[in-house]
Amino acid sequence: SVNEVLSSTPSVLQLAPAVMFDLGTAAELDTDIMSQMGLGVQDLNRINDVLVQTANSATTDVSQLAEAFSYAGPIAKNFGLSLETISAALGVISSAGIKASRAGTGFVGFLASANALTPQAEKRLLRYGVTFDQLNVQQRGLIPVLQTLQAANISASDAIEIFGRESASST
Predict the structure, then answer these.
(1) Cα 167 to chain centroid, rounded
(2) CA-CA 20 to 30 A from 158: which of 34, 115, 141, 170?
(3) Summary mean pLDDT of the chain
């Protein structure tokens, strides 16, 4: 609505110079993430703060982060993950050298793989003392799942076998 556009203008004006975007690009980025995450105009300052903070603390920029969100946002939201958690995960993946669409695709691949392990993948995980239930992001949250995987010290070759090539690089 017109009122929503008018009320969102200050937030867009705040983001644009902070990340050196023109107003149209900043508005598009905000509305895309707002839509992907099921958020409203009242959340624009939060969106901007999270994106800028992640870009400042990771080796990515807001544009690459927005591209990663376009792949990961809606799916990760369906796993019950917040804007902040998704952004932090994408920032960590980006800092590992996997950026933009590859970060989003890898993160989605990890979530999907962890949610639907093959019998072979479950057997490999059990070698490390990790059960399928310990990888349930929806029940346990992302951080506890990642901590479980980190503590298991899974080899790169097993991570690829368990989670797939693209998603293994993001774990």
Answers:
(1) 12
(2) 141
(3) 85
